[in-house]
Amino acid sequence: MGLFGPVPWSEPSVPAIGGAGVVLRTPQMADYEAWAGLRALSRDFLKPWEPIWPADDLTRGAFRRRLRRYARDQREDLAYPFFVFRAEDDVLVGGVTLSNVRRGVAQSASLGYWMGLPHAGRGHMSAAVGALVPFAFRTLRLHRIEAACVPTNQPSIRLLEKNRFEREGYARRYLCINGEWADHYLYARVREE
């Protein structure tokens, strides 16, 4: 059983997290239209930084399956996905996830995020990551947050470094991005820092 106990797949199980001009909230079925619209609009923008999308990725059915997986992952303390909303008007701007939660001797998770094209470069994701870090360390009681970044993704490098993630190394062919195994810089932040 996860940190917050079992919940129906359609109900958020983690409280909303406020940050500097953003709110992070567990995805809900009511978010489908905004999410599908933003992802469709941002497809070409996101393509160099993400895995290949399944053919049905933007369908309502695929979104429903995604929500079920999110709820299961939260119940089992495996991942904590959030949509990022602009606080001033509740507009969806992107998403951020703590995944691959490891307990035992590691006490760590992997950070991943995406930003919709119309909202890129405005500081929303930096604020979202800044809000997520205390949740990871205080609420989830993790010791370490890890992130990987394609070396050519300068905005992502700046975001991680601004949020006090330290570059720890270089991993060859680390993740499959846009259908090809890509090298990545490895970053991390630990609770004591």
Automatic annotation (TrEMBL):
Signal peptide bounds: none
A single GO cellular-component term on record: cytoplasm
Any GO MF annotation of the entry: protein-N-terminal-alanine acetyltransferase activity
Keywords: Acyltransferase, Transferase
Keyword Repeat appears in the UniProt entry: no
Domain N-acetyltransferase positions: 22-192
UniProt KW Protein biosynthesis keyword: no
Family from the record: Belongs to the acetyltransferase family. RimJ subfamily.
Protein name: Ribosomal-protein-alanine N-acetyltransferase
Organism: Blastochloris tepida
Gene field: rimJ
